[in-house]
Amino acid sequence: MSTSNPPKLWVKTQSFRAQLPPQGFSLVLGGSLKQLEIAYETYGTLNHDKSNAILICSPLTTDAHAAGWNSEEDKKPGWWDEMIGPGKAIDTNRYFVIGQNMLGGCQGTTGPASLNPDTGKPYGSAFPKITIEDMVRVQRVLVEHLGIDVLEAVVGGSLGGMQALQWSASYPDKLRKCMCIAAAASLSAQALGFEIIGRSIIVCDPGYQGGDYYEASGPENGLGYARMIGHLTYLSAISMHQKFGRNRRADFSDKNFETGFEVESYLKHQGRQFVQRFDANSYLHITYAMDQFDLVSRYGSLDNAFRDARAEFLLVGLSSDWLFPTEQTHELAKVLLNHKKIVSVAELDSPYGHDAFLLEVEHLSRVIHSFLEKPAYVAANTHAHVSAIEKSVASTRDENALAGLIEPGSHILDVGCGDGSFIDRMFRERKVTGVGIDFDLGHVVECLRKNVPVVQGDVDHGLSLFGDKVFDYAVLNRTLQEVKRPRLVLREVLRVAHKAVVAFPNFGHIGNRLSLVLTGAMPITKALPHSWHDTPNIHLFSLNDFQELCAREHILIEKLICFPGSPVSRFLLAAGFKNAGAEFVVARITRKQ
User: Fold this and answer.
1) Are 492 and 459 in contact (CB under 8 A)?
2) What's phi and psi for 328, nearest 5 deg?
3) N or C: which end of the chain has fewer CB within 10 A?
4) Is the CB of residue 247 less than 8 Å from the CB of residue 157?
């Protein structure tokens, strides 16, 4: 990504009227629309074969103006301008990016405020109920209007993330990559509660008039209060404490029980601003569609919803998001991973709650950029891929031994995968596919750049994202001694995989023993290259310790490879003293039958 300040991106909002059949645009919940206007913006240039198009799915109250500037009078750019533009994460020098106003909106696409062709007046109460599935079908109409068949990616956060998921279910062969950010397959009961309260406040406002208020002022108070409630769900307790605490304004009156707290003033400001730019009926219809979204109810199960999905998935959760908690991201990831879809999962640490994907884009930009820039997989049924990296990966003695214990064509989980080099190498040399898991965001980004599917996670908490025996092999290359709970990790890897290959430095090696005896200090060797104060190793252990643990856990050591570190240790190995002679050990293990 470019770090320089690029020139302003000037764009113009466009619209077109879709060509509809005589029955109009039919809706999932019944009814139809006789006319369909779609407002959109585009950024960048569509290439010759029309293969570089990315669709941006809008969050709840945004519009087609996702990036750039419409005019010199604009006070600020599009709502995701930090993410979209020349040299940015979604690079308009490379991609043709489409922003659009969703169905039911109030910024150019047909919605409740649009003129009803039957009456010549705004639809108001006559506007039919819509679903996210309807919104996605309208987006498909737009994409086809632009002459595009298959999208390079569909990207969305929050409600937009739900739309991205719906794309993969409705049009499984029409997108190559699906990016779902801070969203889920359905809203939680708590989230539903906030939405229900917000809508109730609007419809109980005397100005609502059953939805036919366009010749009057409308339910301004109700809409403002609904926005205040909704806005609370976008924040977090941490960010609100940091921003407001219990600070009070000096200039306030206790009339109507006002408190003067800064958070009160902030929320009222949000409500006033929202009323000036959004239509109450659109808010009602869109939030209703969001509440109704439930892939399990629609398809019978998440398995059915994504059974035919061919896209590569990137699922992003936000650590302080309580509107879409990360548990929902994990639930979705588990289904996709267990079906051996191509899935990567990132959990971004941020104090800003649900709105972090709009407010704090630095880390998200790195993840999205790496996911987009990597080459696409091919042969979706076999989940094979072609790496863009031409440089060779250094083939160490230990890694060669580890690779030799894995059958060609296998599917592996690399636990503590680092930058993904091992999986990348294994595919290119042995047609082994795999998924990595690592806690470090930098490693996740590097894996994405190598086209290695990766899950950001802490293996000490288990491998709950993965079902039983999903993998042929699990790989722990210099990982077991770095985890806090090695016994749990061993149990988990042999739950999710038929076999595991474990590589570790042997602390029982004769060189380590002599170093301790002669110097009284922790040894520093080729196998243990770190000083005691900066080592990633937590549980150093010997080959004997490992064998004892395997016996206790009813684990069979199928194959054991011991590497010497010196002529002395080579002699000890030849004499049968493996624990003393092995500087480094590679073992293939499985559960005893």
Assistant:
1) yes
2) -70, -35
3) C
4) no
Q: What is the pTM of this model?
A: 0.91
Tell me how far apart the alpha carbons of residues 235 and 437 are, in angstroms, rounded to a whole number: 29
Which of these is catalytic: 158, 370, 421, 569? 158
DSSP state string for 369-431: HHHHHSPPP--TTTT-------SPPP--HHHHHHHHTS-TT-EEEEET-TTSHHHHHHHHHH-
Q: What percent of the chain has pLDDT over 90?
A: 85
pLDDT in tens, 9-38: 899 999 999 999 999 999 999 999 999 999
- Helix axis angle for 486-496 and 543-552, nearest 10°, is 60
Tokens 């080579």 -> residue: 570
Catalytic residue among 63, 81, 279, 321: 321
Torsion angles phi and psi, residue 542, rounded to 5: -100, 170
Which residues fall within 8 angstroms of residue 106, CB to CB, at 6 or more apart? 112, 113, 278, 279, 281, 282
Residue 295 contacts residue 335 (beta carbons within 8 Å): no
Helix (H, G, I), strand (E, B) or coil at 110: coil
Residue tagged active-site, from 354, 369, 443, 509: 354
Antiparallel, parallel or unpaired: β 411-415 and 433-438: parallel
List Cα–Cα distances, 183 to 59, 245, 332, 474, in angstroms.
10, 28, 10, 29
Known catalytic residue at 321: yes
- Residues 101 and 40: beta-carbon distance below 8 Å: yes
C-alpha span between 4 and 85 (Å, rounded):
12
> Beta strand pairing status for 25-26 and 32-33?
antiparallel
Range list of H helices, 179-219 = 189-203
Residue type, 261: F
Q: Computed over its alpha carbons, how large is the radius of gyration of the chain?
A: 28
Which residues does 178 contact at the CB level (< 8 Å), separation at least 6? 153, 154, 164, 165, 167, 168, 309, 311, 312, 313, 314
* C-alpha count within 13 angstroms, C-beta hemisphere, residue 270: 17
Residue 158 annotated as catalytic: yes
32 is catalytic: no
Contacting residues for 533 by C-beta, under 8 A, at least 6 apart = none
Q: What is the pLDDT of residues 110-147, one digit of tens each?
A: 999 999 999 999 999 999 999 999 999 999 999 999 99
